[in-house]
Write a structure and sequence with these properties.
Strand order of the largest sheet: 3-2-1-8-7-6-5-4
Shape: globular
Helix content: 25-40%
Radius of gyration: 19 Å
Structural class: alpha/beta
Largest sheet: 8 strands, parallel
Number of helices: 12
Order of helices and strands: EHEHHEHHEHEHEHHEHEHH
CATH class: Alpha Beta
Distance between the termini: 24 Å
Number of domains: 1
Number of strands: 8
CATH superfamily: Protein of unknown function UPF0759
CATH architecture: Alpha-Beta Barrel
CATH topology: TIM Barrel
């Protein structure tokens, strides 16, 4: 794959409206993952938040991507939201074991806690992190204000994560929530995405960044350039970041990710992002 120093991807690999825009014109659903993985080298595995896949499906996914591609699967909502980490050890370990056949293609598992999960439940988080298998990596996303207090509670969280090498997820929604727009995709994203402070420090060797802003490159430019500087510094510091680019309208996410990678390439030696499947198709047809 073209990138060795960091991983970059989107929120999903199977967005059907990318057909003829990012994917080739005749791309079929069973080709989406392989076409996606020909450009990006990581993906947020949000599908596992809603439904745990079969062992056969996991192996099928692994067979469709290159060796250095990384899936960052999200812990099931039954663990993080319904049971709120209480008595979930067996469920968690069973979930992690499911991915053993593709263990070389796993990035950090994404543990997203509910916005109602406060410091009062910190003991359950400690228990979880203590029994997580240490041959895998993890990224924790917190949303409750307790964990952004710049004081005792946040310090406890930071200390715990650093002690176990767990990465703190940074979800940057600053641009998204600064937009005044009647565009449906933006208004829907503003309702769903948290408005949490941004932390620019890392707690593990795999900093985990989720960025969502506007649908167009121009309005995201200052934020993506800022992140390019931070990511470049982390890479120089021997960390290996994971960067996931969101867009209110998912159709535009590939273009935003390509812009970010171009900006990063101005600061550190990374290869150009590969052509999109649609561009390769057009070039082969002599359209370029």
């Amino acid at each position: 794959m073209y990138i060795k120093k960091y991983h970059i991807g989107l929120t999903q690999w199977g967005y059907k409206d990318w057909t003829g825009n990012f994917f080739s014109k005749d791309a079929k659903p069973d080709q989406f993952l392989s076409q996606y993985a020909s450009v990006f080298n990581a993906v947020e595995g949000n599908t596992t938040f809603y439904r745990v896949p079969t062992a056969e499906t996991v192996i099928k996914w692994g067979d469709q991507v290159p060796e250095d591609f990384k899936f960052c699967f999200k812990f099931p909502q039954s663990v993080t939201h319904y049971k709120r980490l209480k008595d979930v050890r067996d469920e968690v370990l069973s979930f992690l074991d499911l991915f053993n056949p593709i263990r070389t293609k796993l990035g950090p598992f994404h543990i997203q806690l509910s916005s109602q999960f406060s410091f009062n439940e910190f003991d359950k988080l400690e228990t979880l992190i203590e029994y997580l298998p240490n041959h895998l990596s993890y990224a924790l996303e917190v949303r409750h204000p307790d964990f952004f207090d710049k004081s005792k509670k946040e310090h406890h969280l930071t200390t715990l994560l650093k002690s176990y090498g767990v990465n703190r997820v940074v979800f940057d929604t600053r641009k998204l929530h600064s937009i005044t727009s009647n565009e449906l995709s933006i208004r829907e994203a503003q309702k769903k995405k948290p408005k949490t402070p941004v932390r620019f420090n890392s707690t593990g060797i795999y900093p985990f960044i989720r960025f969502v802003g506007a649908n167009d490159v121009l309005n995201n430019e200052p934020y993506l350039k800022e992140w390019a500087i931070i990511i470049a510094d982390w890479i120089k510091d021997s960390k290996h970041p994971y960067v996931f680019i969101h867009a209110p309208n998912t159709l535009h996410a590939p273009a935003l990710a390509r812009f970010f990678h171009t900006e990063l390439s101005k600061l550190i030696d990374v290869s150009p992002m590969p052509e999109w499947p649609i561009d390769r198709e057009n070039r082969q047809l002599g359209l370029f």
